[in-house]
Amino acid sequence: MKLLSYSIPLIAMVVLASLGKAAGDTANGGENSADTVFHGEVEKDQDHHLHPPSKWLWGPGAGITLGSFPVFSMWENALPDSLGTFGLDNNYPLQYSDSSELIYRITQKVDPFSMSIPISINYGYWTENSLLSVAINFSTSSKRLQSSLFMQNDSLERRVNLNNTIRFTTLGFGAEVHRSIPRHYFSITGVDQTFFTAALGVSPFSRVTVHNYVSSVENDTIIESVRDSVVAKFSTIAGNGIGASWRLGISSVRKLDKRSNLLIGLCYSGSWFSRFRTENRHLRKEDINPQQSDELLSFVANRIEFTISLLYNLGPETTEIVPDNENLQ
Q1: Cα separations (Å) of 104 from 76, 144, 161, 270, 299?
Q2: For the ranges 58-62, 125-129, 145-149, 250-254, which has the lowest average pLDDT?
């Protein structure tokens, strides 16, 4: 997961660089790109536009999102960072041994990136100038902190291990509109058609879970008292809520064969989540972080999303590729 996290900015940079190059070629009057049409001038036999007959499509999709996620930030700010978090100090307990100290150590830090990998099933209708689609979406992401408390210079290696985890899961559906961008305004080399993309979605099911695992100890009153101090600090929380989302960006399609097409997109993605309930009450911000207010848990996330969808034709296998100048006449 860390490798994917560090590769996301690079992927985004490469895609944006491609978009920037295409836009620069357009600004230079098409001198540097054989695929660019400028002021209606078409380079014959080189500049083509994908114009399939109206048809239905379906297929799976996946993506990678990266950006802010406030509920994760709330949780991280409440994580332990020293013995003082549990009301303990290095000399606890004094009667244990003069040569031993109680130590708190983080064994696995929290990943600095808030990344998720959404997957979807898409169903759409493709015309000459637009692609309309609906999709069922599922996404889950989590963060984890692993740490331990132990007696230094203890030959028995007595310790208490902690595993603090937060997970956020959503299930919803949405609608997308992909509107074709005329090539004399914008084009990308190597693709058949470029779209401006806008989408709206709703999530009737969103779940946030905070789980804290503390290892058990046996027949050791001193370490058991340490564990009791740790357990008193944490509690497991889970709640279900609702949400809404929106996206704006650029996408492009490339025909792979007679029946399949590859749709790639890069966009800004926003989402809002609220009304989380646990048992007979609403979750509040202080449930995630005791230092937060008692307001109901609600937040807005802003992220960058890179998506790939493989769309299969459900209609005729014939797909025409005709010169753009036919549409300019």
Answers
A1: 17, 17, 10, 38, 32
A2: 125-129
Instruction: With CA atoms as reference, report the closest residue to 307 among 133, 84, 140, 119.
Output: 119
Do residues 170 and 138 make contact, with C-beta atoms less than 8 angstroms apart?
A: yes
47: which strand partners?
A: none
Asked if residues 244 and 270 have their Cβ atoms less than 8 Å apart, the reply is no
What is each CA distance from 144 to 79, 164, 165, 168, 231, in whole angstroms?
10, 6, 4, 12, 17
Rounded to whole angstroms, the Cα distance separating 171 from 303 reads: 18
Strand 55-67 versus strand 119-126 pairing type: antiparallel
> Which amino acid type is present at position 124?
G
Q: What is the pTM of this model?
A: 0.77
pLDDT for the residue numbered 188: 77
Helices (H), the chain: 2-27, 70-77, 221-231, 285-288, 325-328
Interatomic CA distance for residues 113 and 318, integer angstroms: 44
If 0-12 CB within 10 Å is exposed, 13-18 middle and 19+ buried, where does residue 251 land?
Answer: buried
What sections of 220-282 are H helices per DSSP? Answer: 221-231
What SS3 string covers 97-121?
CCCCCEEEEEEECCCCCCEECCEEE
